[in-house]
Design brief:
Strand content: 15-25%
Largest sheet: 6 strands, parallel
Radius of gyration: 25 Å
CATH superfamily of the largest domain: Thiamin diphosphate (ThDP)-binding fold, Pyr/PP domains
CATH architecture of the largest domain: 3-Layer(aba) Sandwich
Number of strands: 20
CATH class of the largest domain: Alpha Beta
Shape: globular
Structural class: alpha/beta
Number of domains: 3
CATH topology of the largest domain: Rossmann fold
Number of helices: 23
Strand order of the largest sheet: 3-2-4-5-7-6
């Protein structure tokens, strides 16, 4: 094996460069615009970390405590910036752990570049420590996998991988480099520096929007259902303009929350079966033409395909409309970038004269929609709705990024967090809904937007899976305010057992963990608020001092205070049909 040092890396920005494979890899990342790298070292990546050490001024390495968490950090970084997040792990346990983070990114359409080191090529098939078939492992959780067998191929592999991650429907892409290739000295041609983390500038139009436009023009009640793809396309202006021209109500999926401001006369709220509002679901259910923008429109997003119903005319605007076609087989596909396609529709659309009729109809429906009367919180607990309202009231002026875990936090934020202006300020992992996402994702969000407050909403089950990253928050001095909603169980699953399994609770009641003590042990200020007023004051202080804070809030169990999950309310009214996922 030929070796070289980073000091031997020679060349100019557009010339041939000679150095170790690891040095060529780091140089390729720097030239591609990578400034933050999330990861965790391992045996096979030691040479790569040596190369990173020598370029510490060019790439900030964010040390995670777990490879899955590193992927979540990169995932949130990508969602907040709209650019690919980059994560690095080593063979064996590193790659098996990171898979758990990549599944969410693939399902949610989040661009990630995953750099993995592998065992020495001469050790393959010999049962070497950490040996695993990485391409096979990654097959189900990445768009593509590149295996590098020659150090000179590294720059091209990085460029190709970033292009694949950000083109079409975004997603994670892996580049696998064996440790001997990282150590191998080679000569390679590197492209000039250029930002390759953002989606290509080409805004792909749809082939023909006229059939969709004619359907929208003749609609009795048109509506839009907007998903997370709208955030990567940043098509907020097109959504607002089309709603105005058509007089169309606009609902969002959980991923799409934020695509339209709440004060828009066309805003219906979140649709579906997790935090979905009665206004959004009922409006979509009665709409005859629904334009689905950047969403797979799965069962959760559409309340088991009732909002909209499959009898409606569905138009699918997506870089990959086949996703919608799997759920709505008769949908009219418009393949292309959402912002570009919406502009095409607006250009071709005749003036639709609705007067004030549709606007008044939505206003009247909104006025008739009354929230569920909250159950009285048991002594010693704070109502979830009041906690969310208090947090929004105190922190909203600081324009925070809100990162949310599955379970109790998701429907509470979907239904109750205000959207003051269009944009992605709320990050919810609903590709797979992985527990333990919010705390590490808050690290990625805070690194992406330095100095901006980040609110992480978690729960006691998720806390147990991710609390090691509280040390990361403390070590990096990130202004993350984390609020844990504690109901002393795996509440979501226990609620399913309560409603659909005749209250046969099994495997859902782990023992308690003192989250405040753990957070303090990790170096954070932490407390257990006993009132909403106490919560408010502690958050105000953290914001004023720009410091991290961990709050453990006792809340009622979902059994006692049912969140805004439409199927659960139907079950309590007698319809025990379990929702389809």
């Amino acid at each position: 094996m030929n070796t070289g040092t980073a000091a031997e890396l020679v060349g100019t920005p557009t010339d041939t460069i000679t150095g170790r494979g690891a040095d060529l890899l780091v140089e390729s990342l720097v030239r591609a615009g990578v400034r933050e790298l999330f990861g965790l070292p391992g045996d096979t990546g030691v040479v790569l970390y040596d190369a990173l050490h020598r370029r510490a001024g060019d790439i900030r390495h964010v040390l995670a405590r777990d490879e899955r968490h590193a992927a979540y950090m990169a995932d949130a970084y990508a969602r907040v910036t709209g650019r690919a997040g980059v994560v690095e792990v080593s063979s064996g346990g590193g790659v098996t752990y990171v898979v758990g983070g990549l599944g969410e990114a693939l399902a949610a359409g989040v661009p990630l570049l995953v750099i993995t080191s592998d065992i020495h090529t001469g050790s393959r098939g010999g049962g070497a420590l950490t040996e695993i078939d990485q391409p096979a492992l990654f097959a189900a959780v990445t768009k593509r996998t590149f295996v590098v067998t020659d150090a000179a191929e590294i720059p091209g592999a990085v460029e190709d991988a970033l292009r694949a991650a950000t083109s079409g429907r975004p997603g994670p892409v892996a580049v696998i480099v064996p440790e001997d290739v990282l150590d191998e000295k080679a000569t390679a041609e590197l492209s000039p520096p250029r930002d390759r983390l953002a989606a290509p500038a080409v805004r792909r139009p749809a082939a023909d929007v006229s059939p969709a436009v004619r359907a929208l023009e003749s609609a009795r009640r048109p509506a839009l259902l907007v998903g997370g793809g709208a955030h990567f396309s940043r098509c907020y202006a097109g959504i607002a303009a089309l709603a105005d021209r058509l007089g169309a109500g606009v609902a969002t999926t959980i991923h799409g929350k934020g695509a339209i401001a709440d004060d828009s006369p066309w805003a219906l709220g979140v649709a579906g079966n997790n935090g979905g509002s009665a206004l959004a679901n009922e409006y979509l259910a009665a709409s005859d033409v629904v334009l689905v923008v950047g969403s797979r429109a799965n069962a959760t997003d559409t309340d088991s395909f009732t909002a909209p119903p499959r009898s409606a005319t569905v138009i699918a605007v997506d870089v990959d409309p086949s996703r919608v076609l799997r759920n709505y087989p008769d949908a009219l596909p418009l393949a292309g970038d959402a912002a570009t396609v919406l502009d095409q529709i607006l250009t071709d659309l005749s003036i639709v004269d609705t007067g004030a009729t549709r606007r008044d109809d939505i206003a009247a429906r909104r006025a008739r929609t009354t929230p569920e009367t909250p159950a009285v919180a048991p002594p010693g607990t704070l109502p979830v709705g009041e906690v969310i309202a208090a947090l929004a009231d105190v922190i909203a002026d600081a324009d925070p990024i809100v990162v949310v875990d599955p379970g109790a936090p998701t429907p509470a934020v979907a239904d109750g967090w205000p959207v003051r202006e269009a944009g992605r300020r709320i990050v919810v992992p609903r590709g797979h809904g992985p527990m333990g996402y919010a705390i590490p994702a808050a690290v990625g969000a805070a690194v992406a937007r330095p100095g901006r407050p980040v609110l992480a909403l978690t729960a006691d089950g998720s806390f147990a899976m991710s609390c090691g990253e509280l040390e990361t928050i403390a070590r990096l001095g990130l202004p993350v305010i984390a609020v844990q909603l504690t109901n002393h169980s795996l509440g979501w699953i226990k609620m399913l057992q309560h409603l659909y399994q005749d209250r046969r609770y099994f495997g859902v009641d782990p023992g308690p963990i003192d989250a405040v003590a753990v957070a303090r042990a990790c170096g954070l200020s932490a407390a257990r608020p006993e009132s909403v007023a106490d919560l408010r004051e502690r958050v105000r202080t953290a914001l004023r001092e720009n410091t991290a804070l961990y709050l453990d809030v006792e809340v009622p169990h979902m059994i006692d205070a049912v969140p805004q999950v439409p199927a659960w309310h139907r079950a309590l009214s007698g319809d025990r049909t379990r929702p389809v996922y």
